[in-house]
Amino acid sequence: MKRFAREFQTPRSGACCSIIHPMSRTGRHFLQIPGPTNIPDRVLRAIGQPIIDHRGAEFAKLAKEVLEGLRSIFQTNSSVVIYPSSGTGAWEAALVNTLSPGDRVLLFETGHFSQLWGQLAQKMGFPVEYVPGSWRAGAAAGELESRLKGDKGHVTKAVLVVHNETSTGVTSGIAELRRAINRAGHPALLMVDAISSLGAIEYHHDEWGVDVTIAASQKGLMIPPGLSLNAISEKALSANKTAKMPRSYWDWQGMLKTSETGFFPYTPATNLIYGLREALQMIREEGLANIFRRHHRHGRAVRAAVSEWGLEIVCSAPQEYSNTVTAVFTPEGHDADQLRATILEHFDMSLGAGLGKLAGKLSGIEMGMRFANVPHKEGGVLAALRCLGPAGKITEDPSSTQ
Ligand SMILES: Cc1ncc(COP(=O)(O)O)c(C=O)c1O
Predict the structure, then answer these.
(1) Residue 160 C-alpha to ligand 1 middle, in angstroms?
(2) Ligand 1 pocket, mutate which of 109, 162, 166 (most atoms under 8 A from CB)
């Protein structure tokens, strides 16, 4: 069992049958947090190669190859740029490249990360229309449509949505949100944070009509933190031409030339780009559709375990269950951080912490619950195993992958 509360998994594990001695701290630590994810050895080895001249022909070939590969992960024919930054940088880049001072943005409250994105937008002087949410459901298309219909003067310039809220394990339906914008006949740009979904949960930048997708290296792309990405539609590129926000480091114009020249406007994170090339190769070998199916299957198994334990999943709508992160409430009176500490101490396994208003309320794993005296029913692991069944066989499932 390798996936628990707020845990993101992506590389296929080659060690699912090993028996680990409790109390032992030898061997590899089980990192089961929702990112940074475990890095496959192949990727680590690629990152360890000697650095090359980022102004030389070999680097240019590498950069062009990686940018081309990323397009297939975003499922776009449009432009992709790579920043040497964490995901937060790509949030900022999306805004400064398309908006002008004082432009209003509409953002759905889905959880901790929507809150952080909103704070960032506010600090930059953008008025934020924050659509309240319960942290247990995704962005509501009906609500979006009626708000945009009410915005007769088209004051709202961008709609911001976190596709997969890592803090709650809720995945919003992006295609439906795009349809809502179209039904309202509103010209706002659609910006989507796919930081914890890209390369793991079905995502279609072009087909879903997303204008800017924001992503980062440390989750589904299986490389360390340090790279962030924007995928950019033609409409966003046009907005960039008139956007008046001051920008320099984040300016798309310098970055966009990289797909033709292979050279970045400043020093790129060369070794992370080696890692990215290897990760993209691994994704090609497994096949994006198979990767989505794998996460779907493992997500189901985790949910089966949680339900057997009699615990409550944070996401309240099965069609919005995340296939990469399952956030779970600990029973009243039992502190999730204490449970996480017990699991770390006895099983050398790190689980994701509850973030923001869910802090202290999210939890983990069967043996740890027993050690920590957290009330639960037994049999969750068996339920998960039953659910996994023979590899590749997925039986009917109430949860959707959009
Ligand atoms: C959905 C989501 N958005 C944004 C971020 C922030 O990214 P970073 O911490 O890489 O700046 C995270 C980080 O986990 C995230 O999960």
Answers:
(1) 14
(2) 166
> Which residues line the pocket of ligand 1, CB cutoff 6 A?
35, 86-88, 113, 162, 166, 193, 195-196, 216, 225
Residue 140: pLDDT over 80: yes
* Preceding peptide of 36 cis, ω within 30°: yes
- Please identify, by atom number, the ligand 1 atom nearest to the C-alpha of residue 35: 14
Q: The tokens of 154 are what?
A: 């088209």
Protein residue with its CA nearest to atom 5 in ligand 1 = 87
Q: What is the assigned CATH class of domain 288-388?
A: alpha beta
Output the six-digit token pair for 101: 């001072």
pLDDT tens track for 35-82 = 798 899 999 999 999 999 999 999 999 999 999 999 999 999 999 999
Ligand 1 center from residue 91 Cα (angstroms): 9
Asked whether 363 and 374 are in contact (CB, 8 A), the reply is yes
Query: Is there a contact between 216 and 169 (Cβ–Cβ < 8 Å)?
Result: no
pLDDT of 26 reads: 61
Domain ranges of the chain: 43-283, 288-388
**Residue from 195, 197, 227 to probe ligand 1 pocket by mutation (most atoms less than 8 Å from CB):** 195
C-alpha 209/C-alpha 189 separation (Å) is 9
Distance, CA 170 to ligand 1 centroid (Å)? Answer: 14
| CATH number for the segment(s) 43-283 | 3.40.640.10
Task: Give me the residues paired with residue 232 across strands.
Answer: 79, 212
Instruction: Measure the CA–CA gap between 102 and 92, rounded to whole angstroms.
Output: 15
Q: Which two tokens stand for residue 395?
A: 């039986």
